[in-house]
Amino acid sequence: MTENQHIATGSKEEQYEALLPQIKALVEGETDLIANLANITGAIKEQFNFLWIGFYLIKDNELVLGPFQGPIACTRIQKGRGVCGTAWAEEKIIIVPDVEKFPGHIACSSLSKSEIVLPVSKNGVVYGVLDIDSTTLDTFDEIDARFLKQIVEFIP
Ligand code: SME
C-alpha cells in the first residue's frame, strides 16, 4: 500500500491521474469495507481539500452516514430525498452546480455550494453513495464524474 500520499499539482485531470493509482494501491488487498472507504475519503480530502467527502451506506432501506472527512453531517437520508437519496433511487451520478437550485437538497452545512454524488455498487447492486461538497459554485463536472467513478470501482 501507499505509505505516503503524493499530493499532485496541475490541472484537475493531472491531480486525479496522480490520485487514482494511489487509491487503487491503498484499497487493493484490504478487504475491510470501512477501512477502504475511510482511506478513500482521506486521500481525496488531502488532494483536493473539498469541504466534505463521505460515504452513506444503505442500511434498512435508508442511507446512513459512513466514513467521511469534513464537518459533521446528517446521519440518515431517505431514498429519493436530497441529492444523495436521489442518486441512490435513480442509480445515477448527480452533479449539482448550485445546491440552492436543487429541489429538496439537504443542507448539512451552509458552506456547501455545489455537490456531486455517485452511487457505489458491488456486483451490480448499489450499497451506498459517495458524496462530495464544495464551498464554491459549479465545482464538479464530467471530469470529476469520470475519475470518481473509477475510484469507487476500485473498492473491492
Ligand atoms: N447535501 C446532501 C446531504 C448530505 S451532506 O451534503 C453531507 C443531500 O442533499 O443529499
CATH superfamily, by name, is GAF domain
List the ligand species. methionine sulfoxide
State the total count of DSSP E strands. 6
The percent range for helix content is 25-40%
Shape: globular
Rounded to the nearest angstrom, the distance between the terminal CA atoms is 14 Å
- The neighbouring-strand order within the major sheet is 3-2-1-6-5-4
* Structural class by SSE content: alpha+beta
CATH third-tier fold name? Beta-Lactamase
Mean pLDDT: 96
User: If you compute it from the alpha carbons, what radius of gyration comes out, rounded to the nearest whole angstrom?
Assistant: 14 Å
Order of helices and strands: HHEEEHEEEH
Number of helices: 4
Instruction: Report the portion of residues in β strands.
Output: 25-35%
CATH class: Alpha Beta
How would you characterize the largest beta sheet? 6 strands, antiparallel
Number of separate structural domains: 1
Catalogue the unreliable spans.
Answer: none
CATH architecture label: 2-Layer Sandwich
Describe the protein in words.
The model has no long low-confidence stretch (mean pLDDT 96). The chain is an alpha+beta fold. Strands 3-2-1-6-5-4 form a 6-stranded antiparallel sheet, with helices on both faces. 35% of the residues lie in helices and 26% in strands. α1 packs antiparallel against α2 and α1 (12-27) packs parallel to α4 (142-154). The two termini are 14 Å apart. β5 (114-122) and β6 form a beta hairpin. Residues 52, 73-74, 77, 82-85, 105-106, 108, 112, 115, 131, 133 line the site of methionine sulfoxide.
Concise structural overview:
This protein has 156 residues and is an alpha+beta fold. The chain is 35% helix and 26% strand.
